[in-house]
Amino acid sequence: MEALKQDIRALSKQELRDFFTAAGDRAFRGDQVYQWLWQKGVHNFEGMSNLSKHTRALLEEKFCINHIAIDQQQRSTDGTIKNAIRLHDGKIVESVLIPTKTRTTACVSSQVGCSLDCTFCATARLKRMRNLNPDEIFDQVYTIDQQSRLYYQRPLSNIVFMGMGEPLMNYSNVLAAVDKITHKEGLGMSPKRITLSTSGIPKMIKKLAADEVKINLALSLHTARQEVREQIMPFAKSFPLQDIQEALQHWYDYTRSRVTLEYIVWKNINDQQKDINALIDFAQIVPTKVNLIQYNAIDDDRFEQADKSVIKAYTSQLEAAHITVTVRQSRGQDIDAACGQLANKNTAKIEG
Ligand code: SAH
Asked: Domain 69-351 adopts which CATH fold?
């Protein structure tokens, strides 16, 4: 029986160089392969056209490339494209292309399912099945970049880790992917165009700051009252707001980078004056920007978007406290591509 081949993308650049010297070739060959994999995003060895036939056959014999595939693509009336992405083991994640007049943003997944239990999020209903590998995260970005070029005649401009999963619970793979995305021998994107969104894992926020990754941080806050947060995001019992505040201070001390606070306003959950006051206090700990995001219904009647008047009250009071606030419209709702709606609705393979 043929031995299981190793995915060549699990090798570092040095390991690739070592492979070629051990095979009696030049180390430089490893650099060429590295570029094919991480700059040109090839799916197979045949495509590595500056390598000899012999070298390509050698790679074919020893390695495989477990590239992702688009299982299904849906296009929204607003231009948003949702991709159901099939991984090599048949599991499905979702990645979304979000176009605006001037930008194209890729919303990518970091886990199959999610380890957290936010009661208002469709992805939380899927159990966490596994972490994505760095190449699986990279491939989502690469695929959306191609789609942006094809459908919008421009390269991808921004990346948000706001798809399925909690990126800080798959820390090393997310960072390895960011390295390939930002490296000059990879896609060469600026880390400033990447935003990692977290539900708030204090220890990992501190680590991200200390590791000097230079990407932006968004916190899915949704309420600055601990007792309310524990109700809607039960894992918050283990990660109290006080610890998150301390982690954000640490983040700002290290990075001097403003934190985005994501916040949905719901009827009867966080629509009172005391909720606004708590948010204003929280938002002043370090320089922040508040994004009031629209709630995307996921068929649970406990949650209903608050009235416009409440959103107005939030906006005007935040502004009066000199906190930048934007009200974000939802995108791709008609195809369940909006935040919190990614749950493989159209794919039965998720349990596969
Ligand atoms: N786990 C990470 C990233 C994935 S969620 C995080 O929590 O930040 C991406 C964003 O979508 C988060 O801000 C999340 O709170 C938000 N979200 C989840 N469910 C939603 C829903 N039903 N409507 C609108 N936003 C939602």
From this structure: TIM Barrel (3.20.20)
